[in-house]
Amino acid sequence: MKGDFSRISFQPQRHYAAVMMQQGRVQTDADATEAQLIHLHRDDATARDVIGSCGAPKDEAGFEITSNGNTLFIGPGRYYVDGILCQNTQATLDYGAQPDLPGATLDDIRKAMEEHQTDFGIVYLDVWRRHVTALEDPLLRERALGGPDTATRLQTTWQVRFLPVRAGGATDKRGELEGRVADAKGALTDINAKRDPVVSQIPGAGTDRCTPQ
Questions:
Q1: Which end of the chain has fewer CB atoms within 10 angstroms, the N or the C?
Q2: pLDDT tens across 77-95, in order?
Q3: How far apart are CA 65 and CA 175, in angstroms?
Q4: CB 172 within 8 A of CB 166
Q5: What's the Cα-to-Cα distance from 143 to each of 33, 107, 133, 150, 155, rounded to whole Å?
């Protein structure tokens, strides 16, 4: 959904480290939003510099993929994709019960493998940030004041997905994965541009980040 922003003033090439509020001046949404985006950009950049393109903490590594022969399970914990923190707080999460991938079933995986005539596949973590308004989450309304619409949120969204690949070398599999991910990124960019052109300027909002598991 679209947000009611006067403008998005954050520009990483300006290298601003903080927003300094002055007394007696007009307060605007643009300044407050830029302050948040400065910190978000720094946090993401720090995570990328320290962790790399993807990685997990030693003691709380998340998103381990296991199977009992009938379905896939997603392990609890944390994982970083291109600096973005992803968290699975459920102890045992079935592939088909993912909160951000409703309707996913193991039959989808079987059909995809049959269509591509392969017994191989790559399980990957698809990550982006999406814009959430009070229309999607009523708890964002300020009930103490009668329920007016106030600030919106950026939400980290992750989906564990399956990509069938044909038998071959690692280079062939990687090339197929990168090609299909590129197509998905293009489609997602078009969708988000139509939804909210302003929010599309926010780092990580509507940008697809993927990492094989």
A1: N
A2: 999 999 999 999 999 899 9
A3: 22
A4: yes
A5: 23, 43, 15, 10, 21
